[in-house]
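Let us practice reading a record.
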Amino acid sequence: MRDSATAAAAIALVVPLLALALWAVAARWPFPEVLPTTWGLAGWREVLAQGALPAAGRSTVLALGVALLATPAGALAGRALAGRQVPLARLVEGVLIAPVAVPPFAVVMGLNIVALRVGLPATAALVVVLVVAALPYTTWVMRSAYAGYDRGYEDAARSLGAGPGQVLWRVHLPLIAPALAAAAFLAFLVGWSDYVVTLVVGGGQLVTLPLLVASLSAASGNDAAVAAASLAAVAPPLVLLVMTGLLARGRGGER
């Protein structure tokens, strides 16, 4: 049953990507032909001419910034919630889940108004708002990890003479590494793939890959360019997803 579900998920993922890959190198693909009748790289040239490389750089920096801030914040919040160290825990949980439960546009507009009143620069405000959007994911991943965390390993290390730094780096972090990787991946995905927040808070001045894909999609007869830009936008998260899965499998094997 599990193998069948895995195979079905893989097919559901690969088939759309295969169609995108064909469109990205198709110069002409008329209906009802199964494959393109003419091949070419005009779509990729168009994407590069529209500034795909700078957009990819902005998306990478933005996503890394969100991951670097939201992952440790989510880890701290998740540990506190799992250890029941937070007063009014239910209220705190509700606040943390609000960016997911409330319509995104309402959250974005509210946070954007706060950022404008405070006087944050657009880029800094964008990172802050995206960190808020990523916190529910990183918090709940880390809360689940800490709910099953065995502090006995730390106690054993201390009894053998390990200091606080050694316990942190050689015991604590290796044990929660798979959860940290998963949380960082989700935070990176929020920063990388966001469109609404980047458009509203960035004011259209910060052009990322999702904004470029949307811009190309608005034009007609641009199928190859849209497919090429979409592949460029999908590739980094897929690579990170594979790396996260390998890390989790490796840590599971070590255990």
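A brief commentary: The first helix runs from residue 2 to 24.
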